[in-house]
Specification:
Layout lengths: L7 E6 L5 H16 L3 E4 L5 H11 L4 E5 L13 E4 L6 H7 L3 E5 L3 H12 L4 E4 L4 E3 L2 E3 L2 E3 L3 H11 L3
Parallel strand pairs: 1-2, 1-5, 2-3, 3-4, 5-6, 6-9
Antiparallel strand pairs: 7-8
Helix pairs in contact: 1-2, 1-5, 3-4
Length: about 160
C-alpha cells in the first residue's frame, strides 16, 4: 500500500512501555496503515517497534529516524531507516516530519517530542500519555483519545487538506 502524499503521522512513546501501551501502539500502527498513512517514529524499540510492527503487518510504510550512526539499530519493522548521529535531537526531526503526532504512554523523551510538536503547531493526540497544566489550569493542547481507532481518526481529521 503506498502512502498518500503528505499523509505522515508520527507515533511517539517510551522505549519500555507497559504491555497495554505496546498493544495500543501496535493497533495505532495498523490503523494508520489501513488508512494509507506513512508512520514515522524514532525507529528503536518499545512503542516505536510496536507501532511499526502493526503498520508493517497491515501493509503500511514505516520510517525510523534513528539517534545513532547505524541503520542496523532500527527495529526489524522499520522499512526506511534514517541515520542521524544526533542523539535525542532527532526528536525534532521525528515530529517535524509529520502532519500530526500520536503519543502513546512515554517518558521525558516523549514529553520533549510533544513540546516540539506543539511549538510548531503540529497537533498531538494522546493515548495514556502526558497531561499538562499551565498556571494550575488544564492545558488542552494534547487531544485525548480513548482508543487507537479514535486517535487515528482524530489525527486524520486534523490533517485534512
Amino acid at each position: 500500500m503506498s502512502a498518500k502524499k503528505g499523509k505522515i503521522v508520527a507515533v511517539i512513546g517510551g522505549g519500555d512501555p507497559s504491555p497495554e501501551e505496546a498493544k495500543l501502539a501496535e493497533e495505532v500502527g495498523g490503523e494508520l496503515a489501513r488508512h494509507g498513512v506513512t508512520l514515522v517514529c524514532g525507529g528503536l524499540g518499545g512503542v516505536m517497534e510496536a507501532a511499526c510492527r502493526g503498520a508493517s503487518l497491515a501493509g503500511g510504510v514505516t520510517i525510523g529516524i534513528l539517534p545513532g550512526n547505524s541503520p542496523e539499530d532500527a527495529n526489524p519493522y522499520v522499512q526506511i531507516p534514517i541515520v542521524t548521529g544526533i542523539g535525542f535531537a532527532r526528536n525534532v526531526a521525528v515530529v517535524k516530519s509529520a502532519r500530526a503526532v500520536i503519543a502513546v504512554g512515554g517518558s521525558y523523551g516523549t514529553l520533549s517530542e510533544i513540546a516540539h510538536a506543539r511549538q510548531n503547531n503540529i497537533p498531538v493526540i494522546g493515548l495514556n500519555t502526558w497531561s499538562l497544566s499551565r498556571n494550575g489550569q488544564p492545558d488542552k493542547s494534547i487531544i485525548p483519545a480513548q482508543s487507537p481507532a479514535e486517535a487515528v481518526e482524530k489525527a486524520l481529521d486534523l490533517i485534512k487538506d
